[in-house]
Amino acid sequence: MLRGLRNAFETIESDESAQVVLICSSVPKVFCAGADLKERKTMTPSEVQNFVNSLRSTFSFIEALRVPTVAVIEGVALGGGLEMALSCDLRICGEDAVLGLPETGLAIIPGAGGTQRLPRLVGKSRAKELIFTGRKIGGREAMPMGLANYSVPAGEAHSKALEIAREIIQKGPIAIRMAKKAINEGLEIDLPSALELEEECYEQILNTKDRLEGLTAFAEKRKPSYRGE
Q1: In the chain, N or C terminus with fewer CB closer than 10 Å?
Q2: pLDDT of amino acid 199
Q3: Strands laid side by side in the 98-100 sheet
Q4: Residues annotated catalytic, as ranges
């Protein structure tokens, strides 16, 4: 499953026509329930470490995809399942979604990015509470704390995600990629360096055909037709 997931994202990364990625589950009421604990019990410590390292690497690959990623969360997103959602750019939850990092209840910690990505979204104190207690929260609670971008009625997360994706694909593809790069990388460095990064990213779009198309379309009062050039 993990290898297949990684292969799918590698294919997307090399596909120039890809503009937005939605990550959904085909299983009702479960986005991703995390590790198979029965399987985990049969694994040696080194096997567990190798698996968790592979999981962390895959989620970092998702986070670094050049196109926006949206986690469409209906139902349960626990442990590694929530960590995968945290690696996405946006998260859309159904109101009956159940999100949590219950690892400390198993005497371990979130090991695939949870201890790092959660506090970057909800703040250090809130992240500590959720990880220390392993408390599960619903889709409605996830939005005001910054864990979800939207909480919608159960069963409507996919349609909301498609609505947002359609808004994104109307924008300049190169601009979207540069905006993602500037935000993601800029947050990890000091402000003066981040502003230099923003300048570098802006320079990448100055000589694009899309930038000229945007100005022309505005002057002609029509929708722009961007080609990622």
Answers
A1: N
A2: 95
A3: 30-32, 76-78, 98-100, 137-138
A4: 35, 80, 83, 103
